[in-house]
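quick one before i forget lol
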Amino acid sequence: MRLEMDSLSENEEFARVVVAVFLSRLNPTLEEIDDVKTAVSEAVTNAVIHGYGGGVGKIRILAAAEDREFTVEISDRGAGIADVKKAMEPMFTTDPSGERSGMGFSFMEAFMDQVEVISAPGQGTKVIMKKRIGA
């Protein structure tokens, strides 16, 4: 599945639902659906807020289901991350307002089996997440 959408906060819910419907082909449990939806929500929100700083850009979602493994990739061409390892630490945030908890990557890692982040300043960010369904 391939989806490209504008980096608008209201598209976060749309992304969650589209990915959940695609995931349904693997006959997941409700808990597995909720886990994937939460991880997708966090990744899309990061792209909107941190990738594009609330500005307009594109977010691309690729999803695949092979055997019992579900893979979803969420990417943007926004600001990118200078230090991915640091950004993935719990409670780390670049939000000066203090409104963000810095737990987005932690939630992704908690709900998915594998999370990989590829990013470079000025080139955007790609988050690849995998979850075994029915394991």
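fyi The mean pLDDT is 90.
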